[in-house]
Amino acid sequence: MSTSKPEISKRQKQLLDELNKCADELSGQELYRSLHASEFSMGLTTVYRNLQVLVKQGLVRSRHLPTGEVLYAPVERDIHHLTCVSCGETKRLEGCPVQAMKTPKKISNQFELLFHTLEYFGLCHNCSQSIKA
Ligand SMILES: [Zn+2]
Ligand SMILES: [Zn+2]
Questions:
Q1: Which CATH number is 23's domain given?
Q2: Distance 43 CA to ligand 2 centre (A)
Q3: Same domain, yes or no: 51 and 86
Q4: How many A from CA of 102 to the centre of ligand 2?
Q5: Are residues 19 and 2 located together in one domain of the fold?
Q6: Between the N and C ends of the chain, which has fewer C-beta atoms within 10 Å?
Q7: Do 83 and 58 belong together in one domain?
Q8: pTM given for the model
Q9: SS3 per-residue string spanning 42-55
Q10: Ligand 1 centroid vs 58 CA: distance in angstroms?
């Protein structure tokens, strides 16, 4: 028996497949809705419970929005966003500034890093123009 890959249930695999299919991040609600239309329908609480398991296993990353919503994506996707505090528009950042940072050895020896988050907040071009006007 191999221990290199965590064992995941059929439902967790369905959620992971759904996240891999989508180029963007998905909320629990969105996952629930897209699975609902398919043969793999499951309850919303089941969706959230299984997402939690996937995050703990280091297969899925989660990102908390200021609105309280949580977005999920496969863990290997290292994507960061610029979010406008005025209109809520988000843009993807090119590249990952965190890659250039060195995690202190003290941390990496005692803590198994699964993923990181980094977000920029500000005003988009349109909003900064209308504020100045
Ligand atoms: Zn804006
Ligand atoms: Zn990153």
A1: 1.10.10.10
A2: 32
A3: no
A4: 12
A5: yes
A6: N
A7: no
A8: 0.81
A9: CCHHHHHHHHHHHH
A10: 33
